[in-house]
Amino acid sequence: MAGARKNAPPREDVLAAAMRMIAEHGLEQLTMAALGREVGMSSGHLLYYFHSKDELLLQTLEWSEGRLGAERGRLLTRTGATVRERVDAYVDLYVPDGHRDPHWTLWLEVWNRSQNADEAARDRQAAIEGVWHRDLVALIAEGVSRGEFRAVDPDRFATRLRTLLDGFSLHVAIGLRGTDRAQVLGHVREFIDEGLLADA
Q: pTM to 2 decimals?
């Protein structure tokens, strides 16, 4: 066992493998034993590092969110783009690519398991949510200050918009018939037009 620990792959490689397995085979195939085979570790060895599957899933989500956060940062700080164009880029990154989108599949599972999570895990989930919210609030506030958007309360509008995004994204991620990504993006853009651009 000591030799196995010495040769264990970096934690990031394990998290990347978990995300890859979710993308290729679905969350139901992500067991400790299957992941261990993928990365050359025993399930016991994985439990030594992650303590539980819940913790593995949460760390995988945090890792995935870190990558999304870097991409979001690049999109939202683009020079030469209007605030509305950057809001559209935020929405495009937020909404799932389609049915069984791996990031949203993982997110939904972590949400479901959070019913029994401890306060520390809930705080970590809230931190993920908080970053998305703060970025959107800052964008809307910038749009208001530049005169691109109506004089709305940025925090209140961001809360409403993210609630709309979450609801529609859930439909896309689970493959609800009659709700595809293109339709969702159309509904959201219409909501933004009506709420932010009227009387601008």
A: 0.87
